[in-house]
């Protein structure tokens, strides 16, 4: 089979981003000014972003290349653009922190860019082996990023834990893929979906394969009981790396998981049992995440459990689409992931700013921050309130849309549990807001935020306001990718 120029055009965002990572690596070896490395990393994202936007405007339907392993549609393009936005914001927000705490500043950006390449491929593959390779390309840079504060024992511990647990989860996922291959004779997701027509209902081996795949992806999205890595690794890693884990890794995990289950039609044989398993995981994830987050004193650990709870909410929408075969649940998931990325990055920008200014990341370190850094406090509070689902913030709209879609598809009890958990989440988000605005500061004097960090927080706050005011536009934008995905299903 010969490759055409169009095949490489389909892969152009990932290729150009890979080239950018290599250029940044080379520049870092010869240029001592770290600001140059950061600037090249940020400006260079324009090229893959340009290719992705061009694809979004010119491509319709589904396009496959490279022996049908690469699949480009509006679904994959949506996630490609999302990952590039995450990378851009993280480069802006992390510059001063990385310069201060991380010796290998260039390494940090190179690793992040390589990981984003893997994330883009995770959303753009329709074949099990390629999904696995993409996941590993995503994961290995993250393991190294966790340990980049070399003088810090917690950072080293986080890296080791991440490697060991990541290897275990990868093995579990690969075993699930191997079982699917043994049962169907193919690793192509469309071929797997066709093969299920010849397998009788209630096949136990298919259910076991499905559960193993849920466990493998459950690690990436930090779903209970596969969440044990998140709190320690979030706390020990450099704060910008933690922010990247919480948003990029989670979005990539959901992108691949939804594609595999929908395009591969993994619920064809054991839909009832599969929905029960996923529902139990969703309820445990929401409940454990929120309850444990409410008693944390460290802001990064609190955000780790918050991210776990958010994964539970997202699973509600995924379950609704899986059970009903309708795209509304997945459309709500895409919109929720978009809002979550913006709000979580904004919240972490505030935490990074606090670490830069005070050297601490405990909740008590936020006391009186409004009086010392008002703009930083207001931006952080907006993002936290949105994460908690306070109306009329975009986080409230995304939850309303997600829960309404699930309710309309008959997932009543899951929606009730999610609503109760949303109330619990107000406790710990409110603690930080209270500390910033109502507690007396431990020290006096204004604190100044760096230009790059301030810019990232302003951009996220502005994006949050825009999504709140024109939420329907973004909702409509996620309907097409979800509809095409279900059409493939």
Tell me the strand order in the biggest sheet: 1-2
Rg to the nearest angstrom? 21 Å
Helix content: over 70%
Structural class given helices, strands, pairing? mainly alpha
By DSSP, the count of extended strands is 2
The outline comes out as globular
List segments where confidence is low: pLDDT < 50 over at least 5 consecutive residues: none
Largest sheet features = 2 strands, antiparallel
SSE series: HHHHEEHHHHHHHHHHHHHHHHH
Mean pLDDT, as a whole number?
Answer: 86
Number of helices: 21
Terminal residue distance: 26 Å
Indicate the proportion of strand residues: under 5%
Domain NADH:quinone oxidoreductase/Mrp antiporter transmembrane: 126-425
Membrane topology: Multi-pass membrane protein
InterPro entries: NADH-Q_OxRdtase_suN/2, ND/Mrp_TM
EC number: 7.1.1.-
Short précis:
The protein is built from 21 helices and two strands. The protein has 489 residues and is mainly alpha-helical. Helix 3 packs parallel to helix 6 (105-122), helix 11 crosses helix 14 and helix 12 (239-263) runs parallel beside helix 14.
């Amino acid at each position: 089979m010969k490759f055409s120029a169009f095949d490489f055009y389909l892969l152009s965002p990932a290729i150009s981003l890979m080239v950018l990572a290599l250029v940044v690596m080379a520049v870092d070896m010869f240029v001592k000014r770290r600001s140059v490395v950061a600037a090249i990393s940020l400006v260079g994202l324009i090229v893959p972003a340009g290719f992705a936007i061009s694809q979004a405007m010119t491509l319709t339907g589904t396009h496959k290349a490279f022996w049908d392993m690469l699949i480009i549609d509006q679904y994959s393009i949506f996630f490609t653009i999302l990952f590039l936005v995450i990378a851009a914001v993280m480069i802006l927000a992390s510059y001063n922190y990385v310069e201060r705490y991380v010796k290998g500043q260039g390494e940090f950006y190179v690793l992040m860019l390589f990981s984003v390449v893997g994330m883009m491929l995770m959303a753009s593959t329709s074949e099990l082996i390629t999904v696995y390779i993409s996941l590993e390309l995503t994961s290995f840079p993250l393991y190294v990023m966790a340990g980049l504060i070399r003088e810090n024992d917690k950072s080293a511990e986080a890296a080791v834990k991440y490697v060991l647990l990541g290897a275990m989860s990868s093995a579990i996922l690969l075993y699930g893929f191997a079982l699917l291959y043994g049962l169907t004779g193919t690793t192509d997701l469309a071929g797997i979906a066709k093969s299920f027509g010849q397998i009788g209902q209630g096949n136990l081996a298919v259910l076991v394969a499905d559960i193993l795949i849920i466990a493998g992806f459950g690690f990436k999205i930090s779903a209970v009981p596969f969440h044990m890595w998140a709190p320690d690794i979030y706390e020990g890693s450099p704060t910008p790396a933690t922010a990247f884990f919480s948003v990029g890794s989670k979005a990539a995990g959901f992108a691949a998981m939804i594609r595999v289950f929908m395009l591969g039609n993994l619920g064809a044989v054991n839909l009832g049992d599969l929905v029960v398993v996923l529902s139990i995981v969703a309820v445990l994830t929401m409940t454990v995440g929120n309850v444990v987050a409410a008693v944390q004193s460290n802001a990064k650990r609190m955000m780790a459990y918050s991210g776990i709870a958010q994964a539970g909410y997202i699973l509600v929408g995924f379950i609704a689409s899986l059970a009903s075969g309708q795209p509304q649940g997945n459309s709500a998931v895409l919109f929720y992931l978009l809002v979550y990325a913006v709000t979580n990055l904004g919240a972490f920008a505030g935490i990074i700013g606090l670490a830069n200014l005070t050297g601490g990341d405990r909740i008590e370190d936020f006391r009186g921050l409004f009086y010392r850094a008002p703009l930083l406090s207001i931006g952080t509070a907006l993002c936290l309130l949105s994460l908690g689902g306070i109306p009329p913030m975009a986080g409230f709209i995304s939850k309303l849309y997600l829960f309404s879609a699930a309710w309309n598809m008959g997932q009543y009890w899951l929606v009730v549990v999610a609503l109760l958990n949303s109330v619990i989440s107000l406790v710990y988000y409110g603690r930080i807001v209270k500390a910033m605005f109502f507690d007396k500061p431990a020290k006096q004097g204004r604190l100044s935020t760096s230009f790059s960090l301030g810019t990232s927080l302003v951009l996220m706050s502005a994006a949050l306001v825009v999504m709140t005011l024109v939420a329907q536009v973004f909702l409509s934008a996620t309907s097409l990718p979800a509809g095409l995905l279900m059409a493939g299903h």
